[in-house]
Specification:
Layout: H1 2-18, H2 22-27, E1 34-38, H3 45-61, E2 65-69, H4 77-84, E3 92-97, E4 121-137, H5 145-154, E5 159-163, H6 172-181, E6 185-189, H7 193-201, E7 207-211, H8 217-222, E8 225-230, E9 256-264, H9 269-283, H10 286-294, E10 299-302, H11 304-325
Parallel strand pairs: 1-2, 1-3, 5-6, 5-7
Antiparallel strand pairs: 3-9, 4-7, 4-8, 4-9, 4-10
Helix pairs in contact: 3-9
Length: 331
């Protein structure tokens, strides 16, 4: 009887624990290290933002926050897929960019996407905003976008452009621009922005639509890289003398870059709210603002509901443009 009574007590205790409200469980979050998956290699724009967020989030959560770089696939699909399939407990997060909006549009029919960026993630909040800079190596001998287009038309198929991967934020702007102006550029995809930038600085590729960050400040000042145009609606404060593509007669060539924090679908709402609150708090911190601005990525906090809509709207808009241009994407 004592044994049965002990088993009954144990069963009741286990049942009570299982019925604890989510809020009570969330109050204990986090009680171990948190990881942020970045789908690109170290040193790129997304990685820079992720490490700044990890540093501040660690202070706010009182637990270690580590960044894991998981490059690979078209525009970071490998790391994104791993994050989407992670256990939804708040201990694996994902720092993505608007390349998420391109994933379902750049996969070949025989290799469809096995997850949905729009439905397999929960938005935590937008972090920063930037734009692309069309840069060429000084050895190419051009100093304006018009000169680059003229060179491309005079040498069909001879010019190349780098990207951080097929379907990445650095892939679509030059691909769509080339289609718009009627020049043939050979795409050279890399496993991230950092190696693409290295080869651009070495003159191994003709053009790179690199996301602006402090990494290109010195090469531009030294004259190694020549900035031709930016993809923001207005000129970047970092490059006040570089025109926008809109100014140069290409009103559809607006490609702002956003970076944002997500969690796998099913992550408890209380945990998401805690993380979003921490993110909003750090976005108002002058030191954090200064840190990201100094890296070329001004803070731009976007609340979860707006971020989810932004991802959906970007995906629909880019899908229409990709189909209209009849772009083909291959690894």
């Amino acid at each position: 009887m004592n044994f049965l009574r002990s088993m009954a007590t144990l069963f009741c205790f286990a049942s009570a624990c299982a019925m604890l409200p989510a809020t009570a469980q969330a109050q204990a979050y986090p009680n171990r290290a948190v990881q942020i998956i970045v789908p690109f290699g170290a040193g790129g724009l997304t990685d820079i933002v992720a490490r700044a967020v990890a540093q501040r989030l660690q202070q706010g959560l009182g637990q270690s926050v580590v960044v894991l770089n998981k490059p690979g696939g078209g525009g970071g699909i490998v790391g994104t897929q791993e994050a989407a399939r992670a256990r939804p407990d708040g201990y694996t997060l994902y720092l993505g960019a608007n390349s998420m909006a391109t994933y379902r549009h750049v996969r070949p029919p025989n290799n469809p996407l096995t997850f949905s960026p729009e439905t397999d993630f929960v938005a935590i909040g937008g972090v920063a905003a930037s734009a692309h800079v069309f840069v060429v190596h000084k050895s190419l001998g051009v100093r304006t976008l018009a000169e680059f287009v003229a060179l491309g038309k005079s040498k069909p198929g001879a010019l190349t452009f780098a990207s951080a991967g097929v379907g990445s934020t650095t892939h679509l702007p030059p691909a769509l621009f080339a289609h718009e102006v009627g020049i043939d550029l050979l795409h050279v995809p890399y496993s991230g922005a950092a190696p693409a930038l290295m080869d651009s600085m070495a003159g191994r590729v003709s053009l790179f639509a690199v996301g602006y960050s402090s990494a290109i400040e010195s090469p531009i000042k030294e004259g190694t890289l020549i900035p031709l145009a930016v993809t923001s609606p207005k000129r970047l404060p970092y490059l006040p003398n570089v025109p926008t593509l809109v100014e140069l007669g290409h009103p559809e060539m607006v490609f702002p870059i956003w970076t944002a924090l997500f969690a796998p679908k099913g992550t408890p709402a209380e945990v998401v709210q805690r993380l979003s609150t921490e993110l909003e708090k750090m976005s108002k911190d002058p030191d954090f603002q200064k840190q990201l601005y100094g890296a070329g990525n001004p803070v731009d906090y976007v609340p979860p509901d707006r971020l989810a809509k932004l991802l959906t709207d970007d995906s629909e808009r880019l899908g229409r443009r990709i189909r209209a241009a009849k772009l083909n994407f291959t690894d």
